[in-house]
Every structure is written in C-alpha cells, then in structure tokens.
Specification:
The structure is a homodimer. By secondary structure, chain A is an alpha/beta fold. Chain A has eleven helices and twelve strands.
Chain lengths: ~325, ~325
C-alpha cells in the first residue's frame, strides 16, 4: 500500500480575527473538509485567546477523527502585524495585549507539525486570488473592510509581503491627516473613516446629537448597540441618516482606493469583510470617486469587485500559503 | 573583424522633465559617454517640445560622431503618465497640452531604431537601483521630489509598473483630503503639499500676508521669484519663516512616507529630485514622522536615504530599462 505524499495531506487553517476564530481542514484542492467557529473573546487577553485557539484545533481534530500525522501543517492567518521570520504577532489594534506573542512557536510546541503564520488580510488575498474573485488576475489588491481594514497585495501572481512580512497595511494609509484618531494611534487612517467601527461610531454620534433615524427603533433605543450591519439595513430601508453615513464612508473608501489605483495600477481591487456585504451600496459611490480622483489610464484598467469566498477567504488563503511553502 | 554585438552598443537616453531635457549616450556598463541638456520650454506646447527633443538627439549624435547603427536603442523617460503598450504620453501636469501624444512612434519614425518610453520617475528608480543608492536592494521605493513628485517601485529586484505601465504615482496619493488643490485636479496630494512648487507657494503666501523673511532680500523684493532653492538657502541661514515652511513640507513628506512604509514594508526609500538637495534638513523631520506614524516593524526595517546619481538618474535608468528589454 502506497503512503500518501506529504504534499497531498490537508492543512488545518485558522483565521484569528478580532471577533471570531475560524478553524478549518482544507484539502490540497482547496476544499473545506470541516469547519468550526468560536468567539475570540479578544478583550480577555492573549492567554485566553491562545487557549481558545488550541482548544479549537483539538475539537476540529477530534471531530474529524484526524491525527497530526495526517496533516500537512497548521497555518494561521492572524489579524495583526506579523514578524514572519520570528513567527510573532507583534501588535494588533484588534487583539488587546498582543505584543510580540510567539504564536507560531506556541502552536508548534503543542502539535509538532509545520506551523505557518501570516497576516489575516494577506491570507484572504491569497485565498481570493487562488480560489475566489481574483483567479487568473496577476496584480490585485484586497481590502478586508470589517471591524478594521486589512490589506493584501498580489504582484506577478505572488503575495507581496515586504522585507519583514508586514506589507499591505493599506487600512493604515493616512488620507485625512487632520481626521479622526485611529485605533493604531495615528490620525485619518482609512480604517478610522471607513471600517464598520467607524460607520457605527458616526451613526451613533449623529443620533446622540439629536438627529432622527429609524436606527433608534431597530436597536430598541439602545443606541450604543448600533453596528454597521444595522446602518446598512436602515439605509436599505430608506433611512436618510444611515444612507448619508454609508455614503460618507464610501466616499472616503473611494479616496483610499484611488490612492491604491495610482500607486499600484492594479487589474483588480477586491473588497471583502463585513462591510463588503453592503455590495453596491458601498461600492458604487467608491467606484465613482476612483473615476474622479485616480489617473484615467489606471482608473480605466481596474475592476473593483466584492470578494467571493465570504468568511472562508482567510482560512482558504492560509491553507494556500502553507501549500506554497517549501516543506522539509 | 568581428561585428559588435547589438547588446553591447550604447543607448541614447533622454530625460524629458517639465523644466529641462537631458540627453545622454550611456554604455552597457552604465557609463555616461556624452551628455547635453537644454530647456524643455514646456509652456510652448507639445510640438515645440518634441522638436527640441529631436534636435537634442541630432546634436548629441553629431557631436559624438555616432550614427544610428551604432546605437542599441533610444530610451525616453518622460515626466508624465505613460501608456506603455501604445507608447503614448497620456497626460502630464508638467507638460501642458500633452494628451495621448504618441512620442514613441514620433521618435521611431525619424530614427528607425528601437524606442522605449517609460515614466521618468520609474526610470530614476531603475537607475538608482542598478547604479546608485539602491544597489543590491530588492524592494525599494523612489520618490523624485522636485517641481512635482514622481515615484518608482522596485519589487523583487524588478521595476513594478502595474497592469498598464502607470504604477508608482505616489506623489498623487491623497494624504489630506481637505487640503490644497493639486495640479492633477485632486485635493491634498503629497505633491500639492511637499513639492518644490508647494514649498515656494507657501513661502510666497506667508510673505505676501505680511510675514518677515530674509527671502525678500534674497530675491530683491521680487517675491514671485522665490523657489524652493531660495527657501532652502534662507533656512540654512537661520531664517525662521523658511525653516517653518520646510519643516511643514518635511512633516507632510513623513506622512506620505509612513503610508508607503505601511503599504510596502520596503527595505529602502530613496529621495531624489531638486528638493533632495536639502538633505537632512528635509529628511530628518520626515524620518521622525515615519518613526511616529508607521508600524514599528516596518519603520525599523526601512532606510530613508538621498539619491546618489543626481540629475543623471533618469537617463541612466532609461538606459537600464532599454538594456533589460528583449530586443529583436
């Protein structure tokens, strides 16, 4: 009986976000064989979150009746800045307390298989490029627009990750230097103006200032519970405050995308993440701004499209990353 | 007697800027064999400028006693947006009237040798990468900070020019969406805040508003004659208005560089162009802002350095580009 080749084994992929941890077994054909999700509970700090990751891995292995020798590797996409060489999550606006956490070695210590650690949005870019909206597109930018804004860059068909693995932080591009403070500490980042958090904050602020909106009823008067999702629902129902808030975010998104278009002259920009679910409500005004602000040739060359893989982009991309590496 | 191989012949390289046209014969070892410069006279429109380019080529060939069969090619770096496939200068804030000008074919028609046309700042990036400050550096960004701001991107040791040859317009990255209008038509571009033109404008504005400065004497009362060069001289002489104007530009430059650092995580950023002659007066405050605004890992990884090739970067880079191409 022939042994299965190492490279034909599946990857256990993890998407560590600020809100949820998604864990999946992914075949070398990019199929999701098993999947589970749990809350990150990021506010409880790194130790709790790490234990939740390890428990999620254990559950998935035991549910699928898989032992470690049947895995190619474990690959983690994490919502933070990654020191690729040392396998650290160096910092994260969405994972409080995470500073130089050696996540790769912690997971390696327990499971003794190959471990890969990349940035979550970089993983999503790889996922969409290999299996989603960006298939066959050699030069593309992906933005995950959710709680925060992450980015991934595909150049000449490969993930571009920079000299220390930190490239792609397009969400922390300053577009309004006198603008609101961002969770990263700077002012006027794309993230501070366009993320789901920014949209919710803006709606809450305006309602607290006395403006009327159907959002107040949607959240039964608990204004602080408004999220970008409710703003989207209210806008689709014709609420003018909600529509204005989304238009404002979409306009800023367009300014950021125009910058990316001028800098990269990419074939495609893919928008993923929670806010991408708004579809053309968000993307059409942004496309219009790109048309107005970017150089004509580059503006004409780019397609701005929603992601296709939904929440699975991160785990699929983390698996793609693992399969691409030279494994001993 | 053996014939000289085509690839060993020199390139006639041209740097078409908004102010001057530089023409040079460059050997395949990157040596400048002959060189001449003339004014662009951009305000007189494309026809005049094109005739000046053709005359400059003729003069250089005749002075060097070179005939066309002794050239590998003619390679032009132009200060504008380039449609690489069609060999057009599609537009340029610094060359009034240039819209879809088929510069490649115009030059080809007259000289019947291989003609290459790329963006001037892209050429400068290639030049500095192969022969200047960026030798041996695989991932770098170059910014030419002069009358305008151009950019060039080297990724994995190669010029990255995007899907239609227009990548690298870092000067037209919006960093202050409510900021001053740029020559490109948008607001708050890096160019509108940091270029030599912006620096001169700011100094002139403040003096016209009644502020005192040694600049007034330097230009003998002709305030409108102030250029960035005089502002630099005045600042070095201790003039406080001039120092403040440069510090403001350097701070904005730092915001733009921090964006580039977060996006590209490059090993090096090279600053070339007229403003680069200010040296640490401009670069030190910019470096400080990068340290404060960019992600730590990326900020630590990048060296921000002045260019080494001076005014020759464009012609040298245009020649490097020609030598890199597959020539029939």
């Amino acid at each position: 009986m022939q042994e299965t080749k190492k490279s034909e084994l599946p990857v256990l992929a993890i998407d560590l976000g600020g809100t949820k941890i998604l864990t999946a077994i992914i075949s070398n054909k990019g199929q999701v064989k098993a999947k589970e999700r749990c809350l990150t509970l990021a506010d409880e700090g790194p130790e709790v979150v790490i234990n939740r990751i390890l428990s999620a891995i254990d559950r998935l292995l035991s549910q699928g009746n898989i032992n470690l020798s049947q895995l190619d590797s474990i690959s983690i996409g994490a919502a933070g800045a990654i020191d690729f060489d040392r396998g650290l999550v160096t910092s994260s606006p969405h994972l409080p307390g995470w500073h130089d956490i050696p996540l790769r070695d912690i997971v390696k210590e327990k499971y003794r298989v190959n471990i890969f650690l990349i940035n979550e949005a970089n993983a999503a870019a790889l996922g969409e490029h290999h299996l989603g909206a960006g298939q066959g597109v050699n030069n593309l930018i992906l933005l995950t627009v959710g709680t925060g804004i992450g980015g991934g860059i595909i150049i000449n068909g490969r993930l571009y990750s920079g000299v220390s693995g930190s490239a792609g932080e397009i969400g922390h591009m300053t577009i309004d230097v006198n603008g609101p403070r961002c969770d990263c500490g700077k002012t006027g980042c794309l993230e501070a103006l366009v993320s789901g958090t920014a949209v919710a904050k803006e709606a809450i602020k305006r309602i607290r200032q006395g403006e009327r909106s159907s959002l107040t009823e949607i959240v039964e008067g608990k204004i602080e519970n408004i999220t970008a999702e409710e703003v989207s629902i209210a806008a689709q129902g014709g609420d003018s405050l909600a529509s204005e808030v989304i238009l404002k975010a979409a306009t800023y998104l367009g300014v950021g995308l125009a910058n990316a278009v001028n800098i990269f002259n990419p074939e495609m920009i893919i928008i993923s993440g929670g806010m991408a679910k708004m579809g053309d409500l968000l993307l059409n005004p942004a496309r219009q701004v790109v048309k107005e602000r970017a150089f004509q040739l580059s503006a004409q060359a780019v397609r701005i499209v929603p992601a296709q893989l939904g929440d699975d982009a991160g785990v699929l991309g983390a698996a793609v990353f693992a399969f691409q590496q030279e494994v001993d």
